[in-house]
Amino acid sequence: MIFDELDLIPELLESIDYMGFRETTPIQEQAIPVILSGRDLIGCAQTGTGKTAAFLLPIMNSIYETRPEHTHTLILVPTRELALQIDQQVQGLAYTLNITSIPVYGGGDGSGWDQERIALSEGADIIVATPGRLISHLNQGYVNFKKLEVLVLDEADRMLDIGFYEDIIHIISHVSKKRQTLMFSATMPPKIRSLSKHIMKDPVEIALEMSKPADGVIQAVYMLGDHQKLPLIKSLITDNPEYHSILIFSSTKKKVGEIVRGLRSKDYVVEGISSDLGQKEREETLMKFKSRRIRVLVATDVLSRGIDVKDINLIINYDAPSDSEDYVHRVGRTARAETTGVAVTLVNRLDLPKMQRIEKLIGYRVHIVPLPSFIAGQKEKSYGHHPSPVKSEKGDFKRRFTQKNRKRAK
Questions:
Q1: Which pairing describes strands 41-44 and 150-153: parallel, antiparallel, or unpaired?
Q2: Which of 177, 207, 237 is the last residue of a domain?
């Protein structure tokens, strides 16, 4: 379906066209008419499928038509990165529509507090907030959500995973009961259904196929010891100069620093990002990565759902994530908007059970690629042999990866 077939105002369709969007994604096609009708909605679809536009477009359509003089929409998100990402998307779509939005999040230097206070007390069309920061404002007594028309919980499963349930309930107690509630989630655990029963009215449910990496993601596993990981990553980076944007996920903040130090090179820029950085530093690092002034970015899972960077060529899981769903979100950072990309996972002995759970979740085994000979020869801590490659439903990874890696894999 093309956007022109939806019941959206011409001015918004013009903004959509200006941003280069032509056809709707499945979640957009199904969700936008429901939201325009005023019904509550639970939308379940994996990351990278266009969920943000699925709720922003009908919300902005309503704001443009009614021009409310109060806060129209509150969007709750789990991380400041996602708050900024959504706010930036609003700004892009609202370029000619005169719709106001403001992100409300903690972790900065405090300079934005007064601006947030004014917006929360006097009203802004759209407020995008993290729960903790918003509650800090609520406790001051000036937040006015009495006429709020739409409440959105984005990445709802993630918010509950990191302990925001009580905060969400507290925030909702300050919100108008005569509202439309929209909940978007990549997964649908029992706690999501329990929450929906408390805060929603007869919601429409849209559940697309979940927990499967996009078709454009070429996946691979390397079986190796920890001491072989950095040499392999250096090889992948050096041998693939056409990969201009590489994202490496680490399970801990400590490892981020170790990986960055181990990959330093005069031939390319590598930086790390984690919650240890101040908000301004994180924003600057992300901007440099988006503009490709940083070729290699090493990050913790704080970015697995909160980064919107186009054309990431290669994702490397330095270690297999403990949560199988996190694997899907990590590799979902590449092959977005029907592009292709490569996702490599480095698996040691301890990570084997994690990889088995991931393969059970996604429904197929990920192709195992033999190590390059110069790395496989480091035998004192390695396995000494490698399992035979398994048949992958994604096809022959060695054939689809790159010419140089095919030669080494033979």
A1: unpaired
A2: 207
